Amino acid sequence: MSRNYNVAVAGATGAVGVEMIKTLEKRNFPVANLKLLASSRSAGKTALFKGEKVTIEELKHDSFEGIDIALFSAGADISREFRADVVKSGAVMIDNSSAFRMEPDVPLVVPEVNPEDVKLHHGVIANPNCSTIIMLVAVAPLHRAKKLRRMVASTYQATSGAGAKGMAELLEQTRQILDGQPIAPKAFAHRIAFNLIPHIDIFYDNGYTKEELKMVNETRKMLHDDSLRITCTCVRVPVLRAHSESLNLEFEEEITPEEARAILDAAPGVQVMDDPAAKLYPMPVEAAEQYDVRVGRIRQDISRSDRRGLEIFVSGDQVLKGAALNAVQIAELL
Fold first, then answer.
1. CATH pick for 132-318 out of 3.30.360.10, 3.40.50.2300, 1.10.630.10, 3.30.70.100
2. Which of 127, 182, 275, 287 has its CA 20 to 30 A from that of 116?
3. Which listed residue (121, 143, 232, 243) is catalytic?
4. Is 41 exposed, middle or buried (0-12, 13-18, 19+ CB in 10 A)?
5. Which position among 61, 122, 130, 232 bears the catalytic label?
């Protein structure tokens, strides 16, 4: 017998929180009551859900009584602060921050990749990093078929990855440059308009950034394989929304581009766009506001003497599949 659920969205006024609300409505999630939570300065504002105005409340420690599912996108510190309150109230926290992703007793889930891990939760389920999600929706079906051994990833990450302020900064700086005005970067370490920044999150002593190591460690956790060899370089690009990635994949078994296309054609959450003659390939401008991850430029790695290497290019909406949509899909699994 189906039932409806009391759902809370913490961080309801942020870029991802707003998309979570829209996604719950678009996917007709069985919501009995929706509670929208944010900081005190947003309390009293309203948001629309199914044509009704919902008043945003201040996020407090007693906000989760009677809640079944709490979608969090308010930052790691807030998630840590309210975790115990959510779990004690009997709700399940689906957390979009990096706070709990690598904790052994917290499942890290992409429904198209490892849905069975949802059952292992103890009150908290983590949403992976947006770049990891977009990558694994495309890579996991190939891994299941041919067993991935090594992956080299280069990302082209949109300003949406830094939230609404990142997108606003790209627009503002573009206008400033075109008008010959001075620029003062705030959301990023350097100017982002007409530029690339090979720096996302903090640097570690080994020269990798936190974002790059998130992709390495989260992939191993979700594919349940600590022996996977992964390296990546994460780059911020002057794109508003939707991340793209160039992936070099090495498998245990031989795999042809034709086999890869057939596997990906049948995979959930994937749209194959791979017809170079027709100039058809994934691009962030077309992936934006779409649920599926787009995959193309599928070709044999010609640097190898065998046929165990592939090159692919993917684009996916960072705010949707990389965050809000994935969280709502986890709620649907629950």
1. 3.30.360.10
2. 287
3. 243
4. exposed
5. 130
